[in-house]
Amino acid sequence: MFNAPSPEVCTDQHIEQVICYSNPLLLESGFIPFNEIRGEHFVLATEIVIEDLKKEIRTLEKISHPTWETIMDPLEGLEERMWRVFGPMSHLTHVKDSPEIRLAWAEVEPLWTRFSLELKQNPKLYEAFKKIKGEGWDQLTPSQKRILENRMKSAELFGVGLGIDNQEKFNLLSCDLNQLQTKYQENVNDAINHFSLIIEDKTFVEGVPFQVLAIASERYNQTKSSVMKESTPENGPWNLSLSSPVFIPFMRYCKNREVREKLYIGSITKASSPPFDNTENVTLQLKLRNEMSKILGFESFASLSLSKKMAGDIHTVETLLEELRIAAWEKSREEIENLISFAKNNGVESPFMPWDLLFYMELLKKEIFDLSEESLKSYFPFDQVLEGLFSLTSDLFGITIERVSYPISVWHPDVSYFVIKNDKKEQIASFYLDPYSRPLSKRGGAWMDTCVNRFEQRINIQLPIAYINCNGSPPLGSSPALLTLREVETLFHEFGHGLQHMLTKIGYPSIAGINGIEWDVVELPSQFMENWCYHIPTLKRISSHFQTGEPLDDPTIEKIIQSRHFFAASDLLSQIRYGLFDLQIHREGGISANEIWSQVSKKTSHLPLQKEDRFDCSFSHIFGSDEYAAGYYSYIWAKVMSADAFHAFEEAGLDDTVAMRNVGKRFCETFLSLGGSVDPMDVFILFRGRKPKIEPFLQANNLEVITQVDKNK
Length: 713
Description:
Blueprint: H1 12-22, H2 40-61, H3 68-95, H4 99-120, H5 123-136, H6 142-157, H7 164-194, E1 197-199, H8 210-223, E2 238-240, H9 244-253, H10 257-268, H11 279-295, H12 301-306, H13 314-345, H14 357-369, H15 373-377, H16 382-397, E3 400-403, E4 416-421, E5 427-436, E6 447-452, E7 455-457, E8 460-462, E9 465-472, H17 485-502, H18 524-530, H19 536-542, H20 554-563, H21 568-585, H22 593-602, H23 620-623, H24 634-652, H25 657-672, H26 680-688, H27 695-700
Parallel strand pairs: 5-9
Antiparallel strand pairs: 1-2, 3-4, 4-5, 6-9, 7-8
């Protein structure tokens, strides 16, 4: 433990040590003390670390003979030090939102943005990169070559070659864009949290599961005034929200059409009106992205984005999306027409509307397959699902996963910490798991993020640590957390991302795990893992009735597998809709995002778009950050590849444990181990022995190729 010096010996070095000791963000090793981090720590930690890193950069700039050892290795360490401070702050804005955190983040985000730009645009480092490439290329390993090329391309796309005036303009636009993205996400979060639909008549919530009513009842009690009566789950009142654990079950089970309509309209209009209005924010983001692209010499932001991805250009993406759209179009029409007919036969008195979709899909699914999402939940208690998931990964990849028994500093009591060990029982990675919804402080959706990267430094190895975040329904009273099948898929999906981060064998942080991978391929392991939710032995392992302990029986499992692609064509069209919208708004100028959304919807949906629909105001994937901007198509691109990858297991025999382990080992040694050290097409060929095909994806979704295109693109 650090001992503070006495006042008479407080040198500058001692003062800096005291500051480091008192600021949990400045601890450079060991566990991050999340329970000690406050917003007040953000600014000082940021200023100290940035100043230290700038000194290191000035030292690198003076090196007259740049080599891998003198330039590239130090940069890897420098960026990892930067992430050690920046990463936890960014993470807390997503999982522990508060006015204090927001104010602190608003102050430090511009500092980090400017420093990151300075680093990427550093002309002396860029010249050093070129010199290393020109003089020492043949001495570099394939991983080192990949890093060098990535750094040079990144520098160029961040404006290293621009003149002073254009670079200053680019930087101002970049800072403004980051601030807009932060505000956009805050508006979405606040719009979700502030939406309130009070229901007092219990006949209006007929059909809704008790657990959902309990969440709505608890929210009512949390927000009511002291003079208002107390709510109970059985009798209400209930305060309905737009958070997934309430919104989706109400849309699926609530028999009252008026309640469903109000929730649906609330969802499609969120963050589109004061005080949380993102309308102007969207327009400004598109304008800034377009201007930045023009400065860099690109026709559009879509062209800029695709220059960094596996697909390479807009035409290639649009060709794939159009092929899939045509393949799904008539099948989707049939799905919707059958559903509308079913709804009319079951009491819909006026035209079928979007808020009827999930409700009647659930009824039709129950009639066809004799399955109910709600009854299935009883078989998926969270701990059982987790145990089954860990068992599966052990079989496939030869790892074991253990929950730690010693205390770990976390940001919320729901968070657990796990370690991963290899077949020699050596620890190789670890992760935080934050599984449940907290609408007031945690953003919606699910995601994996980097806590610590794998980093090999001579004899020292820093093992990777991941954050895995979901928004499942929390436990209620004495009942455990029960997951819907969709929530089970989500957990498997995010764990797939985590596996790629944690099982990497690459020792350079910039290409370890998910880093350095073209973004349209990064969803491959995550979507690959979803397939196992419909694998018979896995379904038996992850299921156990929370009261009786009985696993799912064979007839029910068969129904689950048969129902997997229920409305598959319409679901695919929805993903194509998002991908096309994203591409077009980032390619076309002068047309409002809402107008483009309307145009795209006409050719990707058989249901009419509601005039109130303002999806662009809550599309956080592309406006809450840059990662998926002009890249949302990545989900489909990677899904096609992941279907082909999973088909390798099907070919080997899903019931053959030895064959499964052999293919799993190959999957681990390629997709999960190589990170960004190898071109993604080469990684796929290493695993599959050929380039990817679209047929396994189409076959899995009962679709046929209607038009022929060049499959090699």
